[in-house]
Amino acid sequence: MAYSAEDMRRIEVAPAVDDAPQAQREGERQRRALLAESLAGQTPAAAYSPIVLTGLVRAADFILLTVSALVIHTLYVNPPLTLEYAVAIPGVVLLTLVVFQALDLYRVGVFRDPLYQGFRVAGGWSFVLLLALACVFFLKLDSVFSRVWLTSWYVVGLAILSVERILLAAIVRRMSDAGRLERRTVIVGGGPLAEQVLHDLSTQKHSDVRICGVFDDRTDDRSPDVVAGFPKLGTVDDLVEFARHTRIDLVIFTLPITAETRLLQMLRKLWVLPIDIRLAAHANKLRFRPRSYSWIGNVPVLDVFDKPIADWDVVLKSAFDKIIGSAALLLLSPVMLAIAIAVKLDSKGPILFKQKRHGFNNEEIEVYKFRSMYSDKLDHTAAKQVTKGDPRVTRVGRIIRKTSLDELPQLFNVVFKGNLSLVGPRPHALAARAANYLYDEVVDGYFARHRVRPGITGWAQINGWRGETDTEEKIQKRVEYDLFYIENWSLLFDMYILAMTPFALLKAENAY
């Protein structure tokens, strides 16, 4: 039952009736502001992906076992590596990884317990090597493989794996203490259904789920202030503010699937956030096959929304940004130097222009550009858009704005600050407007484009939706293309957009 951005834009739900007096509504706004303020100083460190961490541990196991086998072969067997050894070593190591997976050794919760790991690692590694010895014996390969080499590999491998797991436990515990391996989770919906889910989640062993609290729009007896020992922190509107000021990784709805209207009202508010959203299967009388569910420990859930560009995708995109961004910065440095000199000679003032813009999850970021306006006419909030023949723009500024060369200093944001990507939705200034309205007042779900890091170029830009947004249609189309990019991201898609950007700049018509 996963929803797309297009689904959320098309869904129509009954509007909530707000009969509360003005004083009460003002009190609610103040309470939400106080909640956000109290959370602002409690933002935990950025999380590490458990999927990436377990993948790195698998890679470490593979490398350590393979290298130890090759070193022992070099020291004892001595001749060049034969085909039989070249096949047997990776084969045994891969089988070991499969056995470790079957023994549940690749979970973050397990990494914290060196004793629990130790016995299972020893048992799994012993089983694999006994199996290898049995193969050597029954297949009469004594003359092919050295049993001394195999036995030595077993002893050395066991020692290396034991040390690795002890170090891993210390590292993971330190990361856990810093909050970097937690899945910070909130529950939406109160009452008995939420109580059951909270009990099941909080009693799991080796769990990385940390319950932050409960949110519910109901204020009657069906939704008490404390559920299973966890406080009710506010309404769904409060949750949106909560997620803007502190890290939230997962939202679990405990509403029955029959409460469709209420569920959709809440989803329309939350889908703009960069979080995973799940519907607890406890709350539904419908029973699907086990493979229809995803699982949080032993709690079955139905996937509603997934955080875009997560886990290994984040690693790939970040590496791509750093590598290609650094190369572009190096190659374009002569061009940037020439533009800097031209800007300085053309008019008085600084070479670079810094502007606050919306970044990932609506955070404010500061981006760099070459100054294209006279220094006494700079518009740091973009309250007034640049138009054709705008007298605020310098002679050099008209050239570099038309060709987007004024954006080149944003490579510093990509390479050094990490708050921009090479490709992504373009970051907009805080007060940017379309037809005298703020962008979020024009486009429903506008902030959904902030679920990923913004970029220097993007899908909207190469399709002609760049420059001035003097009509509502222009910003609507830009957001539409941005959401398409987010939902269809791939590394090849980024490469295509980068390759097409120079051609898009040559035929640009809306940039002044």
In short:
The chain is α/β, with parallel strands linked by helices. The chain has helices spanning 5-10, 22-40, 50-77, 83-102, 108-111, 114-138, 147-177, 191-202, 236-245, 260-270, 312-346, 395-402, 410-417, 439-442, 459-462, 472-487, 491-506, and strands spanning 183-188, 209-215, 226-227, 230-234, 250-253, 276-280, 294-296, 299-305, 352-358, 364-370, 421-423, 433-434, 437-438, 455-457. It contains 17 helices and 14 strands.
Core attributes:
512 residues, alpha/beta, Rossmann fold, 3 domains, eight-stranded mixed β-sheet, two-stranded antiparallel ribbon, 17 helices, 14 strands
Describe the protein's architecture and organization.
The chain has helices at residues 5-10, 22-40, 50-77, 83-102, 108-111, 114-138, 147-177, 191-202, 236-245, 260-270, 312-346, 395-402, 410-417, 439-442, 459-462, 472-487, 491-506, and strands spanning 183-188, 209-215, 226-227, 230-234, 250-253, 276-280, 294-296, 299-305, 352-358, 364-370, 421-423, 433-434, 437-438, 455-457. The chain is α/β, with parallel strands linked by helices. The chain folds into three domains: 50-177, no CATH class; 182-305, NAD(P)-binding Rossmann-like Domain (Rossmann fold, 3-Layer(aba) Sandwich); 312-506, no CATH class. Strand 5 (250-253), helix 10 (260-270) and strand 6 form a beta-alpha-beta unit. It is flat and about 85 Å long.
